[in-house]
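Hey,
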Amino acid sequence: MSLALARFLYRFRFVITFLIVAGALALAPRAQITRIDNDIAAWFSKDDPVLRDYDRLRQEFTGSRTLIVALTGPGVTSAAGLDVLRRITADVERVPYVVRAYSLASANSITSTAGEDAGIEVRPLIPRTGAIDACSR
């Protein structure tokens, strides 16, 4: 049986190859390789509560999953401005479904340490002082 199949395939290899290539070319316009559905909704049931929350958040915050807020002004880098920035960051972190909130007031500086105990050292970029830091994460 396999010997007969091998002989058939070898005898008609050019015709079979032509049919495969012609079929691929004929069906190529139907293949939607330029549009890939990479939406997270394809992986969840339509009545999943996680998907419902995700859809609601997408409607409220359209465009991306990251929200960037920029503040400008003469006092943003002053001690009072950084305290305001810390309070705003803490308020944003308390919003349901927010995973992380970063700001200049909560940014860290990471440096390598040399010597026998080489490693990394993580310190606040701007020194944190005051009552606001007692409840920071």
